[in-house]
Each structure stands twice: as C-alpha cells, then as structure tokens.
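--- STAGE predict ---
source: upstream dedup step, 1 unique chain passed
mode: sequence only
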Amino acid sequence: MSGIIEQPRFSCALAAQQTVLAIPRALPISHSGPGCVGKTFAFSATGAGFQGEGYGGGSTVSCTNSNEQDVVFGGEDKLAGFIDGAMKVLKGDLYVALSGCTSGIVGDDVEQVSRTFAADGFPVVGAETSGFKGNSYVGHEIVLRAIIEQFVGDIDPQVRHGLVNVFSVVPPQHPTWRGDLEEIKRLLTLLGFEVNILFGKGSAGISEWKDIPNAQFNLLLSSWVGLDTVRLLEEKYGTPYLHLPYMPIGAALTSKALREISAFAGLDSEKTEEIIAKEEAHFYDYFVSCADFIADFRNSIPFELYIVADSSYALGAAAYLSGELGFVPEGIYITDDADPLLHQDIKAAADALIPASAREGSANESEEMILFDSDGGMVQRNIRKRLGQSKKALFLASTWEDFLAKETGNLSVHFSLPINNDVLITRSFAGYNGGLRLMEEILAGIFRKGDISGTTLTR
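--- STAGE serialize ---
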C-alpha cells in the first residue's frame, strides 16, 4: 500500500537481513545508508519479543553505511571491499549482500558485485532488497529466490523419496517462528519424512539449502508468501509442491494438514491415522483437563474474537479458536499487505476453514468478517466500532492492541508484530502443542488482566 500508516506491522524489504540470519551460519552484508540495519533489527527482532542478535545479527551486521560520495560516484567498489572484509573477519558458510534504498536508487548492482566473488568460488549471493521493493514478506521471498538461483544453482536433481522442503514462516516477522518450525519438523518426522526445515535451530544450515533440488516435494504452509518460490522450484528442478494456505493450529486443523500431506506423498494412510490418533489423544487429554475452568462462568472467559495478524496465522488461529474453543469471530484483520488479486483466495480459504456456525451469534454478522488493512489506526477504529461496550472480547494481536484492550476492559494475547512488552523464546502456536499453548495463553491471560471475579479461588 502507499501513503502514511499508523502503527506499522512490518518493516521494508531490507528486513530480509533477518531471513538470512535465520539460516545457521549465514551472514547478511547490507549495502545501505547509516541506521537502516539498526532500525530494521530493532523492529524485526527486538520488536518480535526481544529475540536477540543471534549469530552475526544486530550491531554485528556488516554495512557499507552509504554516504553522499557513494550517491554521486557509486558504491559498488565500496561494497566489494566490505564483502572481502566480512569474509576475512566473520566466519560464515554463506554471505548475502543486500541493497538498501540508497544503493537501489543510484543503481548499484549488488548481484553483479556478488557474482565476481562467486566466480572465484566464494559463497556470496546478492539480493536487490531496497526498501521500496516492498515489505518484509516481499524481501523474504527476494532472498529465497536469490539463494536458489545464485547459490543452489542449476544442477540435476537426485531425488530422494521421503525428503521434503518446508516453506512457511518469515523469520521473525512471524514472532513464534522458531518454535513453530520445530513443531512442524517434529510432526513431519513422525510421518517418516526427512525434513529440510531450512531455518532455525532445527536446520542443518547451508547443506539443507544445497539439498533443496533433491526433495520429493515442497510443502508450503502459507497463504501466499513462498508461492513464487515453490513455483520457481517446480520450474527449475521439476519438484512438485503441496500448498496449504494456513498455519495449522490445534488438533482438528493439524490432523487435516497431516492427512493432506500424507495423501500427497503417497504414505500409508493407516500408519498416518495411528500417528494422528496418538497426537490427538495427547492433545485432548490436556484440553479436557481445562474443562472445569472453562465451564466455570465466574471466570469470565471471553468469546468474541478479533484477530490482527498476517493471513496465514490469522486463518489457522480463527479456524482453531472458532472450531474447537467456541469463539465467535467478530473481525479478522489481515495485515500482510497481500496483492489485492489474492484477497478472494484468502477469503475462500477462510470460508473453507472457519465453521459457518461460528458466525451465528456474531454482533457483526451483517458485516465482512475478513478485512485487509495494514494500517493499525484504521484497524483499531474498526474494532472500536464493532466492539461497542462489550467486555467479552479477545484480541489476538500485538502490543498495539494491548492499549486498546486495557482501555476497553478486554483481553489481549500476543500473536503478531510488534511485540515490545513480552519475551519470546521457544513459544509456538503451531500444531498440536502450539494449540495447547495458545489456549494456555488465553486462559492465563484472564488472570493477568486482573479482573477475575472475587468468587474464584484466587480470592
């Protein structure tokens, strides 16, 4: 979108430096103006629940700090010097040069500079991630394409049956990305797959990226981010892909996803059902243990649902909370600024995932349930309008909505960026375990809200 917005939900394309840092022992080199790296880190990592610098992040990111001289005379030689210096000082398995707005405007070619190093056998890739190219999601996909085309390259695949590449989260634009990827890998491993998870602690790093062409298929758990990537891989290596346009959260949606994956891969359906039965038994055993708390009306559990998040997570959460916990979706605000051409696909996915019965009883049944807007100010004004005087609402959203929740006497649970008043380490909302954690966050949040009835045992 264009224009000035209130309460931003994402950074610019240069935030792809965090995508690079999410690959073990991969290092970004930013060809940008002073402050770009620090501000991007502050929003995308610190603002995602204080996730830390990690290996080579934060103030350690190499940056050319483009100045007036670089604008007048060009900064490609300067970038080449920084790449050379970075490889001498910083130990990495892959170096990704990223362009900022300044270098993009004057026409510095980071890809060409990087190719001169790659031609000499150095693991260097260039990606045009100038801020005006798009937001964090766009920058993420630009880097994926750059690594695949320049580093993985043109090779003849040696397909291994059972190997799957996973494309889903945008680190750390999805603040629970670390725990979510671990849960996804755990579930796929249970089905018998060898998994290239590609990012995070569960990834083997660069060796997984080199192994991408050899996969039996690619799995995309996302409404639209990554779709261009899996299509590229299909064209380049002939690898088929399965597209599930949501992040599976909770038992019903995760079981549905596992069945679709199993059928696509041609797995033994009986074995898959055994795994699902075991996981569901574990899930519902804990689920039912909360029944007495949920059934106690004195605990004032909210039931009106407002979600402010990107499309993939919003759909997964809405399906879980409405289908299994009985929440009534009053407003789902999609903030990832997807191409308007994709809006109908996202709405269709929501219609398929969210039970029609969930709309019954909604105070806003005559209005659109799903709205697309990355302007937090507009989103909150719409929530206020729909909310009225209700104090029975759950905001599954960001730090921005904490203020609204406090003002209106409702409950807020952190789910999307920015998160500046919480710490996220291994928290996950994906899969069976993530569904339990989300339920736990909601129920525990009632106590943190501080207005539990005096008739409960907390008195």
